[in-house]
Write a structure and sequence with these properties.
The protein is α+β, with helices and mostly antiparallel strands. About 45% of the residues lie in helices and about 20% in strands. It has 3 helices and 5 strands. Helix 1 runs parallel beside helix 2. The longest helix is centred in the last third of the chain and has 42 residues.
Amino acid sequence: MNVVAFARKHDTGEWSERELRTIVTALEKTLAPGTGRDWETGMTEAGDAQFYLLGPLPDQACELCVSRIKGRYILESGSGRLLFEHRNLDLVMLHAKAAVPSTSWLMVRAITLWCAMRNTIHEKVEPLLVEGEEMFVQLVPQLAAFA
């Protein structure tokens, strides 16, 4: 039996429709209209396909990046830290869903404000109340003497 070696088809720098559909479907909750997030595709310097999950305006910072390099899908955070890599795109997208923060920035700001107010009350107002109570305890017997 003779075996003929065919040249392997190299991946172009473009995503197939199936790949894009898989990525966008996996991130559909993240890309919902109310989140302000968007996505874009691009290529590496070597011509490999990349998918970018962009944060809300005005910065539109990259929150997540999926690259296809030599048949492997590589998932990176927006800062370039490697999160996961595998040949199965569905498996990579499971990790991508887990890596995207689901809490909106408005909710994060509201929680931070609430914690700051609570901390301020605890540190500033509560000692005044305690001091006032101590003063009241000391003055009551003296006021009772006048009655």
